[in-house]
Recover the amino acids of this structure.
């Protein structure tokens, strides 16, 4: 499968690129600078917020994936996240590419008491703007019925770790383990992300990933 991946050099994007290439997919990694992405990934420059550039780059690909995110504390979260969302939606429509899988946020997931993760008074201030922008992005995707999108939310804690290939999928509720923890390693998130690409399921919906 030919996959166009935006955000291919970030921590999560790199793991997704590695997982996809290991499975034999032909991956083109898009970054703002066009800098080399990962071994086996063709690198190109592009702006995910520009629908015309997205359309041009997406042409000839079977699927577009995005792991785009702002540099926390140095970029405007809403401008990057919502801008990328609009660019992807409009660009894929113009290119005629239907399938889109994107890195989402955990802030809108529901906790056991029915509140959102982002509404917890202990939610880190540093990440709040990012979470709110992701919530807006998810709302935009949920208005789209002409693209086969999947919004993939990680657990509340996503960090470097082991690739075990083991994970659980959920929906709009925060997944916790038997000890009440909500976490996933970056490599196992990438496994779940790639499985969603390969499986072609969970269309036009949000999926959550955790142990």
């Amino acid at each position: 499968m030919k996959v166009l991946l935006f955000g291919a050099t970030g921590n999560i994007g790199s793991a997704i690129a590695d997982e996809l290439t290991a499975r034999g997919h032909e991956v083109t990694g898009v970054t703002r600078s066009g800098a080399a992405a990962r071994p086996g990934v063709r690198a190109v420059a592009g702006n995910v917020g520009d629908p015309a550039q997205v359309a041009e780059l997406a042409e000839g690909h079977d699927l577009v994936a995005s792991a785009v995110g702002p540099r926390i504390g140095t970029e405007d979260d809403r401008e990057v996240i919502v801008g990328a969302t609009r660019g992807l939606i409009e660009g894929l429509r113009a290119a005629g590419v239907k399938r889109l899988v994107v890195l989402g946020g955990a802030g809108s997931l529901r906790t056991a008491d029915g509140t959102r993760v982002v509404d917890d008074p202990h939610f880190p201030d540093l990440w709040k703007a990012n979470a709110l922008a992701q919530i807006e992005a998810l709302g935009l995707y949920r208005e789209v019925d002409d693209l086969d999108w999947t919004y993939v939310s990680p657990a509340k804690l996503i960090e470097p770790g082991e690739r075990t290939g083991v994970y659980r999928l959920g929906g709009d509720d925060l997944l916790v383990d038997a000890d009440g923890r909500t976490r996933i390693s970056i490599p196992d998130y990438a496994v779940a992300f790639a499985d969603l690409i390969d499986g072609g399921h969970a269309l036009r919906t949000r999926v959550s990933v955790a142990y």
Observations:
- The helical segments are 11-22, 51-58, 77-95, 125-141, 186-199.
